[in-house]
């Protein structure tokens, strides 16, 4: 059995990776409860000493607003800690899989972004993530960087969970019309990354998302339709469209279009992709419905 260490194992993606790989790999995990990743000496020692063959970094300072409020923390977490991971793994011949983001792009391209497109992040989150991924790729450790977008998964509530929670309480659900990307299932990411581990490829930068793209409004509509079909008692399936500027609650800059082109990955690895709608529908039925019935049964 291959030995895999997941860093950031209590986050949205990390928790899903740990759950999906239990029994398939010998999985060790690290979360904030074990130690703060900014204790770089502890981090480096652990990575030099672990017997894991693959190290998967799903940690990060992922709140865009938190990154703007504390840029130093953003760079320490999203760049410096990642640099330590890349060099310690390189020194000991371990393979690093690191996750980055569609928010490295400025959103001005009128089409999906490929891996070769120049990255011009708008805010501190995207800038710090871009510097982190560059350190991984520059370390020549045969490491992988996967840029993912709009991830939903079991570790922590995401957009679909928030939309359903709002629609359980009120008929007035609002969602943004002028921002587009591709919702992506963390469970699907676990399957795709598994194929990478099995194939033992040479490393590099790849874009990964479910297929298709949508606005936040379409994402909300599809979520609420799935919820209704699953028997979740939402009060509306027709959210009201508003513009990003009207929303007013998100202060950090965000790209309008950050759809990722994923042909490089899906033509290179023996895995299938599926539409974001199918992946979302499964998530709502499997996870959100169960969470909602626990709340309503109390
Ligand atoms: N979610 C998305 O839509 C999305 C989109 C594009 C890219 N990504 C990338 O995918 C990866 C996973 O994202 P996610 O949504 O799963 O993020 P998440 O839910 O925020 O999880 C990140 C984890 O990292 C941990 N962490 C952060 N700083 C730490 C520190 N100093 N010491 C120890 N642990 C620390 C967090 O712990 P605490 O909770 O205790 O802080 C959290 O458990 C990230 O690299 C992110 O940039 C995510």
Protein described:
It is a single chain. By secondary structure, the protein is of the alpha/beta class. The protein has a domain at 3-158 and 183-213 and 258-275: 3-Layer(aba) Sandwich (Rossmann fold), CATH 3.40.50.720. The chain is built from eleven helices and twelve strands. The protein has helices at 12-21, 40-49, 64-69, 71-91, 124-138, 159-169, 186-199, 216-229, 244-247, 263-268, 276-297; strands spanning 3-7, 26-30, 54-57, 95-101, 144-148, 151-152, 174-176, 180-181, 184-185, 204-208, 214-215, 240-242. Strands 2-1-3-4-5-10 form a six-stranded parallel beta sheet, sandwiched between helices. It has a two-stranded parallel ribbon with strand order 6-9. Strands 7-12 form a two-stranded parallel sheet. Helix 2 packs parallel to helix 4, helix 4 runs parallel beside helix 5 and helix 6 crosses helix 11 (276-297). The longest helix has 22 residues, at 276-297. It is globular. The model has no long low-confidence stretch (mean pLDDT 95). The structure holds NADP nicotinamide-adenine-dinucleotide phosphate. Residues 8, 10-14, 31-32, 36-38, 58-62, 77, 99, 101-102, 129, 148-151, 155-156 line the site of NADP nicotinamide-adenine-dinucleotide phosphate.
Offer a quick outline of the entry.
By secondary structure, the protein is α/β, with parallel strands linked by helices. The chain has helices at residues 12-21, 40-49, 64-69, 71-91, 124-138, 159-169, 186-199, 216-229, 244-247, 263-268, 276-297, and strands at 3-7, 26-30, 54-57, 95-101, 144-148, 151-152, 174-176, 180-181, 184-185, 204-208, 214-215, 240-242.
């Amino acid at each position: 059995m291959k030995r895999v260490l997941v860093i950031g194992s209590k986050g949205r993606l990390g928790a899903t990776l740990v759950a999906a790989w239990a029994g398939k790999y010998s999985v060790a995990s690290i979360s904030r409860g074990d130690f703060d990743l900014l204790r770089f000496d502890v981090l480096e020692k652990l990575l030099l000493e672990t017997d894991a063959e693959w190290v998967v970094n799903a940690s990060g300072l992922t709140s865009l607003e938190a990154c703007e409020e504390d840029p130093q923390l953003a760079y320490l977490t999203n760049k410096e800690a990642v640099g330590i991971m890349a060099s310690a793994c390189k020194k000991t011949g371990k393979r690093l899989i690191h996750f980055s983001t569609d928010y490295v792009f400025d959103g001005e391209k009128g089409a999906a972004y490929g891996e070769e497109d120049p990255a011009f992040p708008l805010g501190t989150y995207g800038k710090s993530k871009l510097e982190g991924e560059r350190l991984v790729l520059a370390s020549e450790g045969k490491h992988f960087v996967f840029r993912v977008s709009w991830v939903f998964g079991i570790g922590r509530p995401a957009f679909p969970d928030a939309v359903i929670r709002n629609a359980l309480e009120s008929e007035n659900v609002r969602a943004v019309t002028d921002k587009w990307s591709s919702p992506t299932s963390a469970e699907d990411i676990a399957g795709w990354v598994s194929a990478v581990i099995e194939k033992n490829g040479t490393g590099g930068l790849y874009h990964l998302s479910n297929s298709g793209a949508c606005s936040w409004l379409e994402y909300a509509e599809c979520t609420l339709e799935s919820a209704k079909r699953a028997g979740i008692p939402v009060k509306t399936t027709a959210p009201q469209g508003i513009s990003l500027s009207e929303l007013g609650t998100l202060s950090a800059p965000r790209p309008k279009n950050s759809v990722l082109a994923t042909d490089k990955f899906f033509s290179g690895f023996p895995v299938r992709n599926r539409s974001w709608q199918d992946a979302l529908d499964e998530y709502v039925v499997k996870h959100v419905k169960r969470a909602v019935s626990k709340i309503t049964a109390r």
